[in-house]
Amino acid sequence: MFRQLKKNLVATLIAALALGQVAPAFADPADTLPDMGTSAGSTLSIGQEMQMGDFYVRQLRGSAPLINDPLLVQYINALGMRLVSHADSVKTPFHFFLINNDEINAFAFFGGNVVLHSALFRYADNESQLASVMAHEISHVTQRHLARTMEDQKRSAPLTWVGAL
């Protein structure tokens, strides 16, 4: 009896989750677009993001091969701040770091911290290409994508547990 009840419950939950994924496809597209300007303040405050950013900067300094060449550091900070001056929703000061890494990559994390891999300098054909990568990372910070991700995970955690039954 309990086995059949559990099967029915699981089948009902799967159907409900499937419908929840399909139904938005029929909604008005304007209703399904993310609100890019709303911050994810219900999970993390700006102050908490700054504290987490400080923690991760300490971790980065202790584990990553940072490049401390004064000319390069000055250049990426000047370019980064020029880009930030044109960004909307800037709520934190920005800090730019360069690490010695052969992968063409960059990442941003809490508190306005942006990390560029040195390979970007070797393979970018011009400043505009480098600036486009930096602007992309700056937008992750100004749109608070990490805080939004944490908020989404917090909201979906109960569904994850139900799905595990």
TrEMBL record:
<dbReference type="GO" id="GO:0004222">
    <property type="term" value="F:metalloendopeptidase activity"/>
</dbReference>
<dbReference type="GO" id="GO:0016020">
    <property type="term" value="C:membrane"/>
</dbReference>
<keyword id="KW-0645">Protease</keyword>
<comment type="similarity">
    <text>Belongs to the peptidase M48 family.</text>
</comment>
<keyword id="KW-0482">Metalloprotease</keyword>
<feature type="domain" description="Peptidase M48">
    <location>
        <begin position="74"/>
        <end position="155"/>
    </location>
</feature>
<dbReference type="Pfam" id="PF01435">
    <property type="entry name" value="Peptidase_M48"/>
</dbReference>
<keyword id="KW-0802">TPR repeat</keyword>
<keyword id="KW-0378">Hydrolase</keyword>
<dbReference type="InterPro" id="IPR001915">
    <property type="entry name" value="Peptidase_M48"/>
</dbReference>
<keyword id="KW-0574">Periplasm</keyword>
<keyword id="KW-0479">Metal-binding</keyword>
<feature type="signal peptide">
    <location>
        <begin position="1"/>
        <end position="27"/>
    </location>
</feature>
<keyword id="KW-0732">Signal</keyword>
<dbReference type="GO" id="GO:0051603">
    <property type="term" value="P:proteolysis involved in protein catabolic process"/>
</dbReference>
<dbReference type="GO" id="GO:0046872">
    <property type="term" value="F:metal ion binding"/>
</dbReference>
<protein>
    <submittedName>
        <fullName>Exported zinc metalloprotease</fullName>
    </submittedName>
</protein>
<keyword id="KW-0677">Repeat</keyword>
<dbReference type="InterPro" id="IPR051156">
    <property type="entry name" value="Mito/Outer_Membr_Metalloprot"/>
</dbReference>
<keyword id="KW-0862">Zinc</keyword>
